[in-house]
Amino acid sequence: MKKTGTLSTESPEKQIAGFIGKFDSKMQKVIREMRAALRKRFPSAYELVYDNYNFLVFGFCSAPRASDCVVSLAVDANKASICFTYGKKLADPEKLLHGGGNQVRFLALEGPATLKKTGVERLLKEAEAIGKVPMPATGKGETIVKSISAKQRPRRKDLSD
After folding, report:
1. Does residue 159 lie within any of the structural domains?
2. Buried-most residue among 1, 56, 94, 146 (CB within 10 A)?
3. Residue 95, SS3?
4. Does some domain include residue 73?
């Protein structure tokens, strides 16, 4: 496990609770709900966790490598988004996706209900179908904390805004 912060012997769930605890209570609720919804949507996926400088990221992957990620939940102090690793390849007739890079597209999240919208569910199915490696057919995917940045942007909203 690659870490840039202090080496931890805590379980991944205990570490994740600490990562989420850095956010304000409203965002903590969004993170927990969205993570649970994506875990339910991708039950056999490996969940790769990165507590990075800019974002707390939960990647849902077909194998324990970031290159096999299908979608990620990315959260900062102000918003939560789903990032589609191969978003540029997805058909998006409703123009739900944002971003202009060579590969990744994202969708801002209002909450777990966003995942149940027809257009979003179609994007999730298509993203899973075009992944390099298929999701495991059965089982519960492992949660792996991949990195923790020693230096991070504030995880709570700046109250002066």
Report:
1. no
2. 56
3. coil
4. yes
